[in-house]
Amino acid sequence: MASHPTTRFLTRHWISRGRILARLRAPRASVLSAFVLAAVSVVPGPALHAELSTVYLGTGGPGAKGIYRAAFDTATGKLSAATLAAEVGSAGFLALHPRGDRLYATASLDGTVGAAGYRIEGDGSLTLINAVASGDGAAAHIAVHPSGTLAVTAQYGGGSVAVYPIDAEGRLGTARVIEHTDASRVVPRRQDAPHPHQCVFSPDGRFALVPDLGADGVVLYRVDAANGSFVRHGFAASVPGGGARHLRFAPDGRAFHLLNELTLSVTTFAWDATTGEATRAATVAALTADEQAGEAFNSAAEIVVHPSGRWYYTSNRGHDTVAVFASDPAGTPLRRIQLQPVRGAFPRNIALAPGGGWLLAAGADSHTLSVHRVDQTSGRLTYQTKGVINVPAPICIVFARPAGGTAP
What's the pTM? Predict the structure, then answer.
């Protein structure tokens, strides 16, 4: 079995350091060499504290072959080249199991269209566990319950969610399909039918929240994880014609922020964890009308939250930027503070590295993955020069859990 990337990195570092020390111990060591020795001994560089994380990349489109992986250095923000980890069709979205040793993906494999589970090996490679049909066509999103006992996919085209039990070995069981029926019909063609786009579990795991683009809101389910059951509990309406796409809970669990795809805006909801009720508050634009007017097409795609809860980030396709928002205090309506070009085209997905020090943006049309440093005081982004690698049509970014660490 190949050695872990972190091991190889540190081995190379200490070999190089050993060569420096050997040279400096030689009788003819120069004054300059002595200075280098002092620098190496007294000032530990980033390499001494670097931690390499494995990044898994879901893809879908021209040239894409499945799930790719790369190594990311959280000290320097450097990405390795991406390599194919699992050949599978329609691997557009990925989800990590709470234990961190399994990865689940939307998938089309050997005629089965739905979801697939993979075991993450010690070297980061993936071994297929099994694949199961959704029962309602291709899935746009997949999520795993905090208990690790069930997974859910959202079928945008089918207008449904599918619930799969997960056994102790990580195998997916037969899916149970739940059809959505709501449609706002505000925007012709896009909202003439229900279009579930994501599933997010409440922090306590008691509820599932499903943004539905066609319905202009979030369908709420009460979850019985032990029996794998979803019971419709309510509906949280967003702005008419907004096109609810993805949401993120504030770290304290008292609010969530919903990204509206069609209006490129974020709507804040207060969340009552006891009753499972959401109350709509304010909506803020990710792009102004003037900013949108400069592009032939605009569409919001992803929203992520910094671990501190102080900043949120959304991706704008067409405009090809990330909007940065401040939440002061956390859970209040957001305030836009920056627009950062992604250095790529059509950013369908963005993700924060473990610790929140870096943001990665996937350019689906440019076949790129770019790196941006997150300022830990202001939340603002700075693109890293030469911080781009090529990946075929990337549309999802998931960081694996560091060995012995906590979930990112």
Answer: 0.87
Mean pLDDT across the chain: 89
Which residues in 61-99 are b (16+ Cβ under 10 Å) and which e?
A: eeebebbbbbbbbbeebbbbebebbbebbbbbbbbbbee
Distances (CA, A) of 112 to 65, 71, 139, 308: 16, 30, 12, 40
Q: Do strands 358-363 and 368-374 pair parallel, antiparallel, or not at all (unpaired)?
A: antiparallel
Q: Are 367 and 390 in contact (CB under 8 A)?
A: yes
Q: Which stretch of 222-231, 273-282, 365-374, 395-404 has the lowest confidence by average pLDDT?
A: 395-404
Q: How many degrees, rounded to 5, is the angle at CA 397 between CA 63 and CA 299?
A: 80
What's residue 404's pLDDT?
39
Farthest-apart Cα atoms in the chain, separation: 83
Contact 253, 305 (CB under 8 A): no
Instruction: Give the Cα-Cα-Cα angle 381, 383, 387 (nearest 5 degrees).
Output: 140
d(CA 151, CA 98): 11
CA angle 326, 330, 334 (to 5 degrees): 40
State the Cα–Cα distance between residues 376 and 63, nearest whole angstrom: 36
Half-sphere exposure of 230 (CA within 13 A, CB side): 29
CA angle (247, 148, 351) in 5-degree steps: 35
- CA 14 – CA 399 distance, rounded (Å): 27
pLDDT band at 51 (very low <50, low <70, confident <90, very high): confident
54-399 adopts what CATH topology? Methylamine Dehydrogenase; Chain H (2.130.10)
Q: Which two tokens stand for residue 87?
A: 């050949």
Average pLDDT for 177-183 = 97
